[in-house]
Amino acid sequence: MNSPSPLLEVRDVSLGFGGVRALTEVNFHVNQGELFSIIGPNGAGKTSMLNCVSGRYKPTAGRVFFEGRDVTAMTPNQRATIGIGRTFQNLALFGHMSVLDNIMVGRHHLLKNNFATGGLYWLGAQKEELAHRRKVEDIIDFLEITHIRKSTAGTLSYGLRKRVELARAMAVEPKIILLDEPMAGMNLEEKEDMARYIVDLNEEWGMTVVMIEHDMGVVMDISHRVIVLEFGRKIADGLPDDIMSNERVKVAYLGVEDDDDKAAEAVA
Ligand SMILES: Nc1ncnc2c1ncn2[C@@H]1O[C@H](COP(=O)(O)OP(=O)(O)OP(=O)(O)O)[C@@H](O)[C@H]1O
């Protein structure tokens, strides 16, 4: 049996865009401390699913629970505040800002002091600023981006920008982090680095991770549990080995490898 109360629970979630059914009655849960992956062919509904969890999309039907609380009606900002963090499939950094400033943006919603807090503002603000800086420096150390902390984000390689994006998502100190294709467009070395950061994030920082990723090798290597979507429906849910040997999954993936190879070639 699974643990009594999962950190995240998606219950019977369906999502439609006009005539397109992006998701149909999808159920799954993610336990505290898990490294959980969502896989599936292109257009299977993976990003739509993450968007339903982060609050960007409202399910047409079904509910999303976080720490046992129904968050279905909450906005993305409200969900971020209670510990649901995310990165995006396409980079969403401020290209003209430094790496450090991009990461500090992630801390903004954590700032307690503002001009309305009165007399103790300056003292409180200074202490708070110091604590934020320390946290950001920890993240910079962890992701080994010290050498680029002053660089303008837009000038960095794609792999480094993906790393900075992860740093910014970590800066929010989420309880769960949703990673949308963290390794897309990376070369082998960058992928290996990113996989190691994700494992360390999970094991050393204790962060629960939900990841969408097309690289099957990485997914099967580092995930504790995997679900598979096809045409918006969940077709499998289990340990990586079970998923690998699942006949329905093999069929769903026929042809997908080719698309991935083409995409990788296009980026290289
Ligand atoms: N904002 C939207 N408006 C209309 N249709 C959408 C929208 N977002 C997603 N869809 C449709 O929903 C379906 C699922 O898309 P989604 O992006 O969630 O799939 P995916 O599994 O993440 O695909 P990929 O691996 O290519 O990123 C697709 O048919 C897609 O065209």
From TrEMBL:
Q: Where is the signal peptide?
A: none
Which keywords does the record carry?
ATP-binding, Nucleotide-binding, Transport
The terms under GO molecular function for this entry are: ATP binding
Q: Which InterPro entries match?
A: AAA+_ATPase, ABC_AA/LPS_Transport, ABC_transporter-like_ATP-bd, BCA_ABC_TP_C, P-loop_NTPase
Q: Which PANTHER family match?
A: ABC TRANSPORTER ATP-BINDING PROTEIN, CONSERVED COMPONENT OF ABC TRANSPORTER FOR NATURAL AMINO ACIDS-RELATED
Domain ABC transporter stretches: 8-256
Q: Name one Pfam family in it.
A: BCA_ABC_TP_C
> Is the keyword Transport in the record?
yes
Can you name this protein? ABC transporter ATP-binding protein
